[in-house]
Amino acid sequence: MSLNDVARALVAPGKGILAADESGGTIKKRFDTIGCDSTEDRRRAYREMLFTTKGADEFVSGVILFDETIRQNASDGRPLPKILEEQGIIPGIKVDKGAVTLAKSPNEKVTDGLDGLRDRLIEYRGLGAKFAKWRAVIDIADGIPTQYCLKVNAHALARYAALCQEEDIVPIVEPEVLMDGDHSIERCYEVTTATLHTVFNELYKQRVALDGMLLKPNMVIPGKKNSSYPAKPELIAERTVACFRNVVPAEVPGIVFLSGGQGDEEASANLSAMNKLGPHPWQLSFSYGRALQAPSLKAWKGDDANIAAGQSAYLHRAHMNGLARSGEYTATADAGLCVLVGVTHDDSAESASKLASKVANLRIFDGEQSLLDVGGAALVVSQFTLYGDTTRGRRPSWIAAARPEQAEPLVDAFVDALRTLGVRVEAGRFGANMQVALVNDGPVTLMLEA
After folding, report:
1. pLDDT digits (tens, 9 = 90+) for 159-175
2. Is 176 a catalytic residue?
């Protein structure tokens, strides 16, 4: 496969990249949160759990590995990169040596690792790596980033990318503008624009083929300490896409976003909002670490008895980000109601409106308050086959369920009526195979008839 072939395979529709390249220090911090010792065996077991998840290949195109991981064998003796390749998942490798203090600018960082990189790339290629990653760290604070910092990091990124392509390895270029500060979204827009402009200037100077690389940037997002954080996905999508259309050449096959400290659902919702604004000159995909792994790590708990639970959590997050690739991810409604809607032959627009009013005004929250009183949201699951008759026999009868051509407009009318009443509504795609997670507080489940 050519560099372009590999790059395009990594951003294939519906797929993205798992970043499993945590350094020893980072993986220890994550294992500490579940009370698990960070031994080589436990790290291998955790990554093996992720890499052997059945069905993940439907949503994951590639995995970025750490130096230790690319050399490890699974419990059955197979090399971990081989396990990925057998599923059609492309192995990659992190090749930078981490960020260090930038000389003459003590509040800024530059990434180490260029010394001996050509030889390491040759070795990694032999171990199965088809792509690589190098991360530069750009911080926002008073007086920084300086142009000096941007140029030094861009130069290193371009040198790394050129060396990768020389060894027939696709470089992922990752200039990350951190979201740790108190900066506004507009300040992030300015710094991200300046960073990418500098990076692409250096890539051009060092003859990097843009159609044989991928960009892994931050989203344009306010700092976590800013009062406007978290911003709405629609705003983040608009500012991010506007920024990239100004500075990212169309020759680049794809942009694989880092999550950068966002929550798992937050990262999915923001990516989905961007793809709703398409089509774009490049594929907009993901290269998430914590945003893909956090629920899985929590479910696994360092215990092999929980492998199935860990794999299920990982597969769910991979699936959700696969949906975000086409703008079809629906963010979770927080406090409020999960409404399972079934439509029968006798239902009408009038009954949809009546039911919406009932749902919005039903006094079932603390203090006999309604959904409108508490400012809650409604997550509407729009499956017409929910309307089943179980009065006879052991198999549900769907005879009373309205056909899709009748049911879909009525579900839409129900959602529109809720929104007209002032309810925030999240709704999936009618007839889709939705995966719904909810916390039933009470628990209380009510069946309402229009």
Report:
1. 999 999 999 999 999 99
2. no
